[in-house]
């Protein structure tokens, strides 16, 4: 045996000392590096947890009506909305020490290394739930060292800044379960057709096994392998103290009812309305396209499903399938401006162009209520009279002559009242009123009513020759229906971000912009469209639908060569219906000219079915109601053959009694008429 020399011993000690020093320096450097990493992670703060998620759209009763479509189903739910069995099953099989480590399970890592070395292959994973969550949030699923180091850094940041509950909730909401389903809620809906909070132990243990290999362990792909995986998970739950062996055996035997369908794929409610909501999110709330599509928003809308179905049903039933005509409909709550139903065309798949909000069409006579409201502001009353006859208007400024025509060239050839002119849609009366007020008056009034399109200052504007949007017209009539309060078409009541924070909520304040008394008088005149008592030389324009309506309505129809309209309301609902051809082709078939009125009348009855029948409520002051002769607008006596109770702005009511019935009475009855003298007290107070 060779004895080490003193020189050799000293040399060995020297090398050992150098090794120890280098090792200490290395350890110090490692500690400094680790401290630096921790410090840098702390400085950076918590990483954002936002991931692409489907934006969900809800009706006014909370029913899901649609979602953004990115090819992936992603919904975020809180831990309280996830079955505890699914939480326990996932922790048990994926990371049993999750609650005890700080992001890395070093004992598990060492065991995985030994197993891989023994098998000369990667046979066992060691990633914790935190590591997997970091990968799902921030990284691609490649196998480079750069990715692994970055994953470790994000894992540290997550553990430093978030609670175990936050991390586990995030993991369960981002893990992939196959078939486009990301997160437990989408997976639960897809595989079992129920919410994640409703899963049984059998379903939860089956679902927890899928992420290891969705193409292998999905019960829809291979039930045998899925059951084997389920058994392993139930066994680990027993070993980790989550359930008893007896409970596990019962869960393994429990039958499973699989769906295999994304439930929201079946939801295709109001596609035109949903498009309008997306536009509102972008243009009114100023959200970007990515946030709208993948921000996990919850958008609560104003849509009433029952009324939407009624709208679609009436259009389908009333319009001939062979016709190429298009139809649009907007229904609103006049008190709030909430849009309750919207149809932008007959087939969204063929034409997603939304005629309810995008098309600009001539409104025809539906513009007249706005004109006559302006007339009331300038001293007109329902009893104001003008002569209706064939008329050519001449102008001194070199403007061309203008000759409007009534429908079928029918004229009273005499004096008619404003109320009667509105009911029978007399065009001569409208143009005379328009010119009397000044052509700019209607333009300014239209702005007051919320119309946004440009209008031409011409005589024919009184007959609706300048284009408007359907939704604007529905909104304008809402202001008459609600007594003059300013409303705007509202599609959204509330928007929440993926964390449940409210980022928008509708303002319920509505300023009064119209005079309540004049708005009510205008509404009452519009009920005359459905009142045959105002039938003078022509039928009232609502005569074709009178037999179909069962409650008080106010409204106005309108038509041009290419457009057919009906807009009307009850105290609870205002609806605008338009029919026409996109290319501006003339409407020639008689049936097509009646579509708008028929759809409107039947929709209103259908939409309001089961709701109380309400009359239009007069304001507390500013109006007075009197019986008048509808033909001349004068105060009616009991002897008048036709009387109509008519409202006036207080102070503008007529004070002259009708005597036309006396002129037409036989000469022999003159003495009897003289005997029927009005009592002295009725001369003071003309009570009925």
From TrEMBL:
Pfam families: Transgly (PF00912), Transpeptidase (PF00905). Coiled coil: none annotated. The keyword Transferase applies. One of its GO terms (cellular component) is plasma membrane. One of its GO terms (molecular function) is peptidoglycan glycosyltransferase activity. The chain crosses the membrane at residues 20-41. Residues 62-237 form the Glycosyl transferase family domain. Keywords: Carboxypeptidase, Cell membrane, Cell shape, Cell wall biogenesis/degradation, Glycosyltransferase, Hydrolase, Membrane, Multifunctional enzyme, Peptidoglycan synthesis, Protease, Transferase, Transmembrane, Transmembrane helix. Its main location: membrane. GO terms for biological process: cell wall organization; peptidoglycan biosynthetic process; proteolysis; regulation of cell shape. It comes from the Bacteria. It is found in: Cell membrane. Residues 329-604 form the Penicillin-binding protein transpeptidase domain. It catalyses: Preferential cleavage: (Ac)2-L-Lys-D-Ala-|-D-Ala. Also transpeptidation of peptidyl-alanyl moieties that are N-acyl substituents of D-alanine; [GlcNAc-(1->4)-Mur2Ac(oyl-L-Ala-gamma-D-Glu-L-Lys-D-Ala-D-Ala)](n)-di-trans,octa-cis-undecaprenyl diphosphate + beta-D-GlcNAc-(1->4)-Mur2Ac(oyl-L-Ala-gamma-D-Glu-L-Lys-D-Ala-D-Ala)-di-trans,octa-cis-undecaprenyl diphosphate = [GlcNAc-(1->4)-Mur2Ac(oyl-L-Ala-gamma-D-Glu-L-Lys-D-Ala-D-Ala)](n+1)-di-trans,octa-cis-undecaprenyl diphosphate + di-trans,octa-cis-undecaprenyl diphosphate + H(+). In the C-terminal section; belongs to the transpeptidase family. In the N-terminal section; belongs to the glycosyltransferase 51 family. This is 1A family penicillin-binding protein. It comes from Neobacillus bataviensis.
